[in-house]
Amino acid sequence: MKKKKMSTTERQGFIMDLLKKATTPLTGSEIARMTNVSRQIIVQDISILKAKKEPVVATSQGYIYLHEEEGQPLEQMTIVCNHTPEETEQELYILVDHGVSVKDVIIEHPVYGDLTASIRVSNRKEVDQFIQKIKETNSSYLLTLTGGIHLHTLEADSYDKLDAACRDLQKAGFLVT
After folding, report:
1. Cβ within 8 Å of residue 47, ≥6 positions away
2. Burial (0-12, 13-18, 19+ Cβ within 10 Å), 12
3. Of 65, 70, 61, 54, whose CA–CA distance to 22 is shortest?
4. Are residues 155 and 101 in contact, defined by beta-carbon separation less than 8 angstroms?
5. CA distances to 18, 27, 77, 93, 94 from 165, in Å
6. Which residues contact 75 (CB under 8 A, 6 or more apart)?
7. What is the rounded CA–CA span in Å between residue 79 and residue 46?
8. How many angstroms from the chain centroid is the CA of residue 80?
């Protein structure tokens, strides 16, 4: 039996409910299958939801809903790094191994200004998924546009974790000071 087609409003409400309840990122293809529409329609719906100021973020693993943090506030820090694309995995492992989450990557593009891309990796499995997605899609790291120079916004539940991660990035020669 064929599913009844949802209206745009119903589908966007359904997407928001899905994302709010999800414990892992959901891909556009997964949501498309659940709503019986194309992935492109989901991409459009997500764009509309973002324009309505819904805290939906596209990550390399899929879409997530940013819930307001409860409990202890996170320490945040922005760092500048420089390395080759081949060293990205090592850089991210250093960070997540210290209990640090990498929120994004930022580059300063000569034409577009600051470009920010959400990464949102907090453990080795998520790093592996991010690296695999880059390889599968034959994509380039943003750092290739700036000769390796890029920024990361980091989050951790203590400043000590951020500090220890930065010391190890410095030892590896990745941190620009």
Report:
1. none
2. buried
3. 65
4. yes
5. 34, 30, 11, 10, 6
6. 155, 156, 157, 158, 159, 161, 162
7. 30
8. 18
Q: pLDDT of 57-114, one tens digit each?
A: 887 778 888 876 555 568 999 999 999 999 999 999 999 999 999 999 999 988 889 9
Q: Is the pLDDT of residue 162 over 90?
A: yes
pLDDT score recorded for residue 65: 87
**What is the token pair recorded at 114?**
């600051």
Q: C-alpha distances in angstroms, 63 versus 25, 74, 118? A: 5, 22, 11
- pLDDT, one tens digit per residue, over 32-71 is 999 999 989 998 998 889 888 888 888 777 888 887 655 5
* CA 139 to centroid of chain Cα atoms: 15
List, in sequence order, every residue forming a beta bridge with 152; answer none if it has no partner. 79, 105
The answer to whether the beta carbons of residues 154 and 100 sit under 8 Å apart is: yes
